[in-house]
Amino acid sequence: MNAPQNDIQLETLLVATSEFAANAIVVVLADAGIEARAFGSIQGGLGFPLGQHASGWGTPVQVRSCDAAEARRILDQAKQDSLDIDWDAIDIGTFEGTTATPPDGLPIAAKIAFLATALTVLAGLAAAVLMAF
10-84 maps to which CATH number? Predict the structure, then answer.
């Protein structure tokens, strides 16, 4: 139920609790043929639900005004469908790989790099103290 391209009036469908959740909602709507956008912020990438919007804290999900009713119907249907999943009946397979045992300690290259960095910092501090007198 997409409208012509000249209809660009956006409406906030909902405000998700995180940028991840907002993007998941955008994907559900895109699968149904409705174009949606999640307007996150730099804080969303840090995992904080920051970003004050007129409709609350979080990440707003917006759709064209003409698609809003259909988008709400699709999200309601997706929510109902997810409640009916019998997770005990889902076969996720078995893990057949092996897990690697982490090596003991850091590699020698990392130890050398750490030592060089520590010496550089100490030399810089010593130079700053000597220049102060």
Answer: 3.30.70
